[in-house]
User: What shape does this take?
Amino acid sequence: MSPSKMLVADDHLALPAGSNKTIPPTSTNAKVQTDRYGLELWEGSSPVIDLGALHGPSRSDIIKQLDHACRHYGFFMLKNHGISETLLNGIMGLAREFFHLPEGERKKLYSPDPTSLISLAVGFKDDKQDVFVSRESLKFHSHPLEKFVNAWPTNPSSFREIVGDYCVASKRAEITVIEAIFEGLGMERETIDQILGKHGQYTSLNYYPVCDESNLERTFGLRGHTDSTIVTMLLPDEVPGLEVLLNDEYVPVKPMPNALVVHVGDVLQGLSNLQYKSLLHRVIVNSETERLSIASYCYPSNDTHIGPPKELINDDRPAIYKDFTYEEFYSTMWKQRRPDATRLDSFKVSAA
Assistant: This one.
């Protein structure tokens, strides 16, 4: 039993509002808004982290900003992440080319087996709720690259080369971000190495087709859910659609040119001892243009302990979660079929 199953829940029920709280802007500068922690805000509500500054004299400030973003927003826009604009455009163009292949060619990759190393997921109708989930998604394992690349498509002909380059580059940025987040939490180096030593990466190319205007009210790209990851890193195209739950309301996340969207997953909620909360998010569709995104999901190995490490527990902050492994969490998640981080409740100390 392992995370060879589909990692991201995409057939979930709509969820009630949560309790994430944002920090209102304190600067009204026409070019840059900031919140009271000094976080740059894109479009007034999305915190921005400059990953490039992590490697200079501002490192400690960036680590604090990462902590604030994870603690108060659950997500952030990541700029200067080290992935070239050429590669960003390349992977997005490749995804568009793939989803514009004839339907019969794409559906050769369809599999109802959730343990498949690569699988095409398609939209479906939920008759019980009378809603339609309109998304086509190609999902596949991508780290270590040499273990999985030969299972990837060869149509388009550049698929393996471009996707491989992007997966390597996105994983590099992803691990850099996660290590900095762990450092900000106060984790020891040994703990960080244990968590990331045998980590995995899962990637999906996502396509949201144009929706007939008469069906918009009953159609989602993805319904509200959290991800069973450490973090999820998303490359959206220029078309809005992602919405995150902030202040008990779903707020649109407007794409920032050449930036990635990084958000907290269930595993990070457990590791942080609930200092960070897994981000509830969804995707809406529109009646005017298709939308694409590329998602990278970072998860630990099955034997990794994702209960809070000892250095994050003290008299003032007792353990909320018991010591449990990712395999135990993953198995429980699939039995419960819950769409959000309440699947961690089984591992709370009070649940013993």
User: Anything to note?
Assistant: The helical segments are 59-72, 85-99, 103-106, 145-148, 159-185, 189-196, 266-271, 326-336. The longest strand covers residues 200-208. The two ends are 24 Å apart (CA to CA).
